[in-house]
Amino acid sequence: MQKSKIKKISIFYHLPFNDFISRFYLMDNLSTIEISEKIFRETKISISPRAIQKRLKGLGLIRSFSDAFNIAIKKGRKSYAHLRKSIKSCELRRGINLRLRYEIFKRDGFKCVLCGNTPKESRLVIDHIIPVVDGGTNDFLNLRTLCFDCNQGKMISEERKR
Predict the structure, then answer these.
(1) Which residues, including other chains, have CB under 8 Å from residue 95's CB and lie 6 or more apart?
(2) Is the pLDDT assigned to residue 83 strictly greater than 90?
(3) How far is it, in rounded angstroms, from Cα 148 to Cα 140?
(4) Neighbour tally for 38: CB within 10 Å
(5) Which residues pair with 144 in a beta bridge?
(6) Whether residue 40 sits in one domain with residue 106
(7) Would the pLDDT of 162 be above 60?
(8) What is the per-residue pLDDT across 119-154, written as a single tens digit (0 to 9) for each?
(9) How much is the pTM?
């Protein structure tokens, strides 16, 4: 970096250059790119992020990769959703116990809520209104009674939507 740029920036911020870039970096959790952009926006003086990074490294203020990643996640610049281990829908479906199943059947009059079939006409199943894979829960209000055929037909029509 040119000394004249550093001097102009220090005068603008009323602080020594090292003090305000370390404040931006540590207290405001700004990246070197954000610091560079902030300086340019406020002073119209261009300093490369690499030059700021070298200065911070000279001061012993470099973040670990995990710290930088966590800050980026908090600011919404990064996501670790792709790193999460996926949860199988069969693991989420656990918990519809016999008592809850019976309460759902009883609430729905032991009939399919779509076509009206009874257990004599078709096998009845418990269905999630909002699918488990889309964030649906085993909550009483998210469950309903369907016959096997309606449940299969619903699954086919949902696959076509995607």
Answers:
(1) 138
(2) no
(3) 20
(4) 15
(5) 127
(6) no
(7) no
(8) 999 899 999 888 877 778 888 899 999 999 888 877
(9) 0.47
Q: Please tell me the distance from the alpha carbon of residue 104 to that of residue 117, in angstroms, as a whole number.
A: 15
DSSP 60-113: T-PPPHHHHHHHHHHHTS---GGGSPPPPHHHHHTT--HHHHHHHHHHTTTS-T
- Give the pLDDT mean for 75-83: 75
Q: Summarize the confidence of residues 59-70 as an average pLDDT.
A: 84
- Whether 136 contacts 128, CB under 8 Å: yes
Q: What residue type is 135 in one-letter code?
A: G
Containing domain of residue 101, as a range?
89-161
Name the domain boundary from 47, 82, 117: 82
Q: Would you state the structure tokens that stand for residue 107, as one six-digit string?
A: 């609430």
Q: By C-alpha distance, which of 70, 60, 57 is closest to 29? A: 70
* DSSP string for residues in 94-161: TT--HHHHHHHHHHTTTS-TTT---TTTS-EEEEESS-GGGT----GGGEEEEEHHHHHHHHHHHHHH
pLDDT in tens, 106-120: 999 999 998 999 999
* Co-location of 77 and 8 in the same domain: yes
The distance from CA 68 to its chain's CA centroid, rounded to whole angstroms, is: 17
Residue 14 Cα distances to 19, 27, 30, 52, 74, angstroms = 10, 17, 19, 18, 30
